[in-house]
């Protein structure tokens, strides 16, 4: 058996920030989950409805692994990423750092993991791995999934080799903090303004504030979009509130990030952004509840109400990001 010693195996609310927390705490850098999410410019929005999708998906963050790359760049961390099509090499890429006493991040499809209660394919899931023996791999996942958990080596191999939306080729990664730990306070404004600029200027109408406005129009048609509204609408709402989002489609995490930043920086723009994201978080939870109720009752009025809330959210979040974007001007 090979195990990384003296590891803090706390599970957090979101998978990627959970893994980042494990890797960075082992390096002596202990940041809150909202700070990890915010410094990684993690907040976003996408309305996704492809031809092969059974039902639309509302996403509240940047694409998988972009948060990790953003955080590493912003904090000047040494990020080493390995990808391969060879299962044998993929295992070596994981075993070697663990044998040397360093935990490893993995991107995989959560469907194949033994401990996962909900069997849904999600190829953008991220965990930290800190040990293995002849039969099992020892991982850290979100608190919701159990924190420190184990899965069979066979199931881990399947999860890492999976192909499909958001999957990666046996991706593994390590993070190393430079000799002198970076000043977090000096990285806050660049992280916030980069996130705001992307949100305010999306390249397509499905993203950012434009995507929320589009969702406000289309969510009203969701009862006609599916043959199984009692299944699909409550599941969509569940993905918004649970499923590792921290609640309110990641807006709770970003609200808390901005609150933490406001204690470090004296800025009216920052306080405005925090107040508006506190409002947005409440509205997202209300919208999710109405979507679930529509699926359970078949009442289109619930979706009309949810659409109106999403219209409001597009405005509220646009105002919030405009205020936060002004941080760049000092």
UniProtKB/TrEMBL annotation:
Question: Butirosin biosynthesis protein H N-terminal domain: which residues?
Answer: 14-142
Which Pfam family would be a valid example here? Answer: DUF4872
Q: What InterPro entries would the database entry show? A: BtrH_N, DUF4872
Instruction: Specify the DUF4872 domain's residue ranges.
Output: 155-324
Say which domain of life the source belongs to.
Bacteria
Protein's name in the database: Butirosin biosynthesis protein H, N-terminal
Q: What organism does the record attribute this protein to?
A: Nonomuraea solani
Question: What high-level taxonomic lineage is stated for the organism?
Answer: Bacteria, Bacillati, Actinomycetota, Actinomycetes, Streptosporangiales
């Amino acid at each position: 058996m090979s195990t990384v010693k003296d590891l803090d195996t706390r599970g957090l609310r979101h998978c990627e920030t959970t893994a980042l927390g494990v890797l960075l705490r082992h390096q002596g850098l202990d940041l809150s989950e909202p700070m990890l999410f915010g410094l990684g410019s993690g907040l976003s929005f996408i309305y996704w409805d492809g031809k092969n999708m059974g039902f639309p998906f509302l996403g509240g963050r940047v694409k998988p692994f972009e948060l990790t790359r953003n955080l590493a760049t912003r904090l000047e961390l040494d990020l080493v990423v390995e990808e391969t099509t060879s299962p044998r090499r993929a295992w070596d890429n994981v075993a070697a750092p663990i044998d040397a006493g360093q935990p490893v991040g993995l991107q995989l499809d959560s469907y194949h993991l033994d401990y996962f209660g909900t069997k849904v394919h999600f190829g953008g899931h991220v965990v930290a791995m800190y040990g293995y023996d002849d039969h099992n791999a020892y991982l850290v996942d979100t608190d919701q999934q159990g924190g420190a958990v184990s899965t069979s080596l066979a199931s881990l191999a399947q999860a890492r080799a999976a192909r499909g939306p958001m999957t990666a080729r046996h991706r593994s990664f390590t993070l190393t903090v430079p000799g002198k730990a970076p000043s977090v306070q000096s990285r806050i404004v660049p992280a916030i303004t980069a996130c705001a600029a992307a949100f305010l200027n999306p390249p397509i109408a499905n993203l950012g504030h434009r995507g929320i406005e589009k969702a406000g129009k289309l969510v009203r048609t969701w009862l006609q979009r599916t043959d199984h509204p009692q299944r699909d609408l409550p599941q969509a709402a569940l993905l918004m509130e649970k499923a590792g989002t921290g609640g309110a489609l990641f807006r709770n995490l970003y609200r808390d990030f901005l609150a933490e930043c406001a204690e470090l920086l004296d800025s009216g723009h920052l306080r405005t952004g925090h107040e508006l994201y506190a409002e947005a978080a409440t509205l997202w939870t209300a919208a999710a509840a109405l979507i679930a109720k529509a699926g359970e009752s078949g009442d289109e009025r619930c979706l009309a109400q949810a659409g109106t809330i999403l219209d409001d959210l597009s405005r509220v979040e646009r105002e919030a990001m405009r205020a936060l974007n002004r941080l760049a001007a000092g």
